[in-house]
Amino acid sequence: QVQLVESGGGLVQAGGSLRLSCVASGSIVSINRMGWYRQDPGKQRELVAGITSGGITNYADSVKGRFTISRDNAKNTVYLQMNSLKPEDTAVYYCNADMFTWSRGSKNYWGQGTQVTVSS
């Protein structure tokens, strides 16, 4: 069973920092792109940041300069360092990854989400 498990969410004051982690586990042959998305109730899920297996990154304009995505390929883990947090960053953050397994081939997977709440 392939799965993504996020951790690191919580409540923080505006201007503070949080670090999210997401670990992929199961019979994984390879992981291509990994990313973080977020969703507020009543809104569409939006891309926050993505990173390829080679380390190329991209960010939503709203988080550029404040958030940093990174990954440890040996640990099948992706991180999101979030600094200078703002109340509008409040959302459920989801990990996403394109992974290849022998049983299912290439598929896109989602984590269960972790809540980030930024108080003003």
Percent in strands: over 45%
Poorly predicted parts:
none
Rg measurement, Å: 14 Å
Structural class: mainly beta
> Strand tally, please?
11
The biggest sheet amounts to: 7 strands, mixed
Query: Helicity, in percent?
Result: under 10%
Q: Can you give the mean pLDDT? A: 97
How far the N terminus sits from the C terminus, by CA atoms, comes to 40 Å
Q: What overall form do the CA principal axes indicate?
A: elongated
Count of helical regions: 0
Which series of helices and strands comes N to C? EEEEEEEEEEE
Structural account:
This protein has no helices and eleven strands. The protein has 120 residues and is mainly β.
How would you describe this structure in keywords?
single chain, 120 residues, mainly beta, 7-stranded mixed beta sheet, 4-stranded antiparallel beta sheet, 11 strands
Write a brief caption for the model.
The protein has 120 residues and is an all-beta fold. It has strands spanning 3-7, 10-13, 18-25, 30-39, 46-51, 57-59, 67-72, 77-82, 91-101, 105-110, 114-119. The termini are far apart.
Layout of helices and strands:
Layout: E1 3-7, E2 10-13, E3 18-25, E4 30-39, E5 46-51, E6 57-59, E7 67-72, E8 77-82, E9 91-101, E10 105-110, E11 114-119
Parallel strand pairs: 2-11
Antiparallel strand pairs: 1-3, 3-8, 4-5, 4-9, 5-6, 7-8, 9-10, 9-11
